[in-house]
Amino acid sequence: MATATFQQPFSVNAHLNDHSRLLLPKVELSTVNFPANAEFSRLNFYPSFPSTSSSKEYAGHVRSIPNVDGSTKEKVPTPMLDMIKNPMHLKNLTPKELKQLADDIRSELSFMMSQTQKSFKASLSVVELTVAIHHVFHAPVDKILWDIEDQTYPHKLLTGRRPLVSALSEGNGLGSSTRCCESDFDPFGAGHGCSSISSGLGMAVARDLKGKRDRIVAVISNETTMAGQVYEAMSNAGYLDSNLVVILNDSRHTLQPKLEQTPKTSVNALSSTLSKLQSSKIFRRFREIAKVLTKRIGGGMHEWAAKIDEYARGMMGPPGSTLFEELGLYYIGPVDGHKIEDLLCVLHEVASLDSMGPVLVHVITKEEPGVEYNTIKTSNENYTESEKDEDIVVVHAGMGMEAPFQFLKNKLQDKFFDVGMAEQHAVTFSAGLSCGGLKPFCIIPSAFLQRAYDQVVHDVDRQKIPVRFAITSAGLVGSDGPTHSGAFDITFMSCLPNMIVMAPSDETELARMVTTAACIDDRPVCFRYPRGAMAKLNPDPCIIEPIEIGKGKILIEGKDIALLGYGSMVQNCLRAHSLLSKLGVDVTVADARFCKPLDINLVRMLCKNHAFLITVEEGSIGGFGAHVAQFISLDGQLDAGIKWRPITLPDNYIEGAVPKDQLALAGLSGNHIAATALSLLGRTRDALLIMC
To answer: Across-strand partners of 590?
Structure first.
């Protein structure tokens, strides 16, 4: 494994996989040349200065195949799963057979996990729950909704999509999202989280208004309970009182390490019995009768009885269960999520109630070990605690956390705040930290930053508060598909009046942009980079200076045509240059660095010295290319004769695939850029040949 190490004020120790767009393959006439064979690297925000202390080694991890000899894990037979083509085939199975089916699903997912880099631990935690749901409810007539895609693979295996799920081990197959158009068993898209209760409530109200009787089941998880929309939806569900089943998959996961030492919600014989009692028809009808009688008695009897009921049920339930009651949901639980018999008993009772209002079933599950990792070492990292910038803090938001950020979290400890899927809070929290005199770096994946755009506009940009946004997973994201794709951040961030918007073309530029962001204290700034590349902080006098705001650079000078790349697409421009140079085309390649403020002197010079200009970005229409077009139009460059062509992501969602195939599908590969240049030069035949 190769390692690319760049000493920086925020140094880069990069371990990147073959698909990283910040690594440039060895091409002719390139001014940047990195090996493309590594795993991942880290983004760190504290400078580390030379000291006499010995260097330390820090380890990251990569997944390993279970077999010691490196051979492929043999697939375990799954006879029960082989019989299931759709959920109807579960209806006549006994609890023992359902348990065997759950074991087969777990074996199937474990085998896939051994063949791919994808973790299925969230899906492994809901295997028995998924089997029980499909045994009790009648999908697709009954609607089953999921909050996050990571939990849906057992659901997909049981609803006729086993071949597509299995194809994931071959690098293709289902994308990351469970879309309503993908199958009749998916009434609403899953992927970005927090949507299942809101959409389920909408379907429940529509059902009631149309006089139908189908049942709606919304499954949520620990991660999504961090987001405010979940509680907004619960509150509205309690008010509307429509029949709705909410299942909370509690995998006992917490973002706060200090809470990991607190007592966990226990599931034992007593709690199991109480859960069955709470869900039973007799108990529910008794409560309904009691409500009617106390209302007739009057004199405050109904309110008094309701308080006693709430208090008694709060005593029986785990800590926090009364929150759901306060929101208007009838709480049942906790239920052991790995005991088929208990799940069937409770869900059968819940499904049999014709008039129950919203119900929350609290299911306790255990996340099984996911991706296992082998050690990758990065060394020569010296830290001098007394020379840190004490004002730098990090706020992390989004679904899950990459291993490098976990390393950073462990290092920064109380100065690293992981707020989970609470992106709106993360942005405004960062603004408050800045107002308090600190220097917050707000790390949010591009797709999740979309959820906090109102806060970015009003709580940060409008007030010119210096929050530094590190936008991760920008552009296409491989097998995670459109759900996690970062296609829009260039457009929606660059339209803000006070925002500085930049993107690095390689690891060195990334580290310098971190340094640049740390130096900006009068306005917000953001920088984006693709999945798989991050930087660390080590000072080096040679490259410690921040980048001049709004200053791009020319990498290679030519005369026939100019390629102006933004961010990681600079590398593909260099690939196109290599191809075109072999065909006798003299190409200029420039790195824009900044979308806003745009380097107008660089753009003007490119227009003056070339007849053709191509802008290239891994973002949607309306981003970097639109800013260039605005300038050259107002500056009269179009009138002067420059022929300009933008290359952006197409105006559609690109499904999950390996990154190389996604870029080719989007028309952003080096070959596509070269073909566009040849077409502009009138060499149509060569353009067609280069795409063959």
So the answer is: 554, 564
The residue whose two tokens read 């100065």 is: 415
Single out the residue of 356, 369, 347, 367 nearest to residue 129, CA to CA.
347
Check whether the bond before 334 is cis (ω within 30° of 0). yes
For residue 140, cis peptide bond before it (omega within 30 degrees of 0): yes
Model pLDDT for residues 346-386, shown as the tens digit of each residue: 999 899 877 678 999 999 998 764 444 333 333 333 332 32
Determine the Cα angle at 143 with ends 140 and 147, to 5°: 125
Angle between helices 340-352 and 269-279 (to 10 degrees): 20
Give start and end residues of each alpha helix (H) in 50-185. Answer: 79-83, 95-115, 121-124, 127-136, 153-158, 162-166
Q: Alpha carbon of 531 to those of 42, 90, 247, 477, 489: distances in Å?
A: 11, 40, 32, 6, 14
CB 314 within 8 A of CB 306: no
Give the three-class secondary structure for 250.
strand
Per-residue pLDDT of 507-562, as tens digits, reads 889 989 999 999 999 999 999 999 865 444 444 545 568 999 999 999 999 999 99
Do the beta carbons of residue 69 and residue 34 sit within 8 Å?
no
CA distance 432 to 323: 28
Secondary structure of 257-287 in HEC code, one letter for each residue: HHHHHCCCCCCCHHHHHHHHHHHCHHHHHHH
Alpha carbons 536 and 407: distance in angstroms, whole number = 11
Q: Copy the structure tokens of residue 256.
A: 């706060």
Residues of the chain predicted below pLDDT 50: 1-19, 23-71, 173, 175-176, 255, 257-262, 369-387, 534-539, 541
Q: Supply the Cα-derived Rg of the chain in whole angstroms.
A: 28
In whole angstroms, what is the distance from residue 643 CA to residue 650 CA? Answer: 21
For residues 458, 460, 462, 463, the Cα torsion angle rounded to the nearest 10 degrees is 120
Indicate the residue type of 682.
G
Cβ 593 vs Cβ 553: under 8 Å: yes
Percent of the chain residues topping a pLDDT of 70: 71
Query: Cis (ω within 30 of 0) for the bond into 95?
Result: no
